[in-house]
Amino acid sequence: MATIIRINPDNPQERQLNQVIDVLNSGGIIIFPSDTVYAMGCNIHHPKAMKKLADIKGIKLEKAKFSIVCNNLSHLSEFTKPIDSSIFRLLKQHLPGPFTFILEAGKALPAAYKGHKTIGIRVPDHSIPQKIVELLGSPIASTSIKDEDEIIEYTTDPELIAEKFDKMVDIVIDAGYGGNIASTVIDLTSGEPEIIRQGKGEL
């Protein structure tokens, strides 16, 4: 059964966050808030957790396109190919924010991402995922929680989310109601920004 941890987004307590870190380090799956919708994630360096995340989504890990959630742009050189100054300026201008930027994948990606030619990078403008990444010392893999309802795409109530994923995840962070508009996805692999999905962020 999932543990529900209520965390104040305006003042996240390190004691509560350390519970989340322990779960991530032991290969657990968490559900966390962001500046867009609630998302599910795990430690990118834990292969079994990555496979479990893919299983929950009902896809094969090698086909999974999990974004990498960072707390700043310092991880770019590790996970992406070198980018030119104009792209870096664009990223710096819009992050943290409700965007997922698709970049060419670098060689130092964790094993679960091997074979991927591109990678989605997220730096949410939200204190909780930022603090989690900071305390963990590395980014987390992330995928939005979609709803089966054709009209309501994303569930905003963390209690309903906890009910639905109770036996699948280890921790659900309750930081109050989430949003119901996902991030704007922008492909930067051609050197020119191409909007793949218009979401919350305006480029």
TrEMBL record:
Domain of life of the organism encoding this protein: Bacteria
Name by which UniProt lists this protein: Sua5/YciO/YrdC/YwlC family protein
Gene Ontology molecular function: double-stranded RNA binding
Residue ranges constituting the YrdC-like domain according to the UniProt record: 14-201
Annotated InterPro entries: DHBP_synth_RibB-like_a/b_dom (IPR017945), Sua5-like_dom (IPR006070), SUA5_domain (IPR052532)
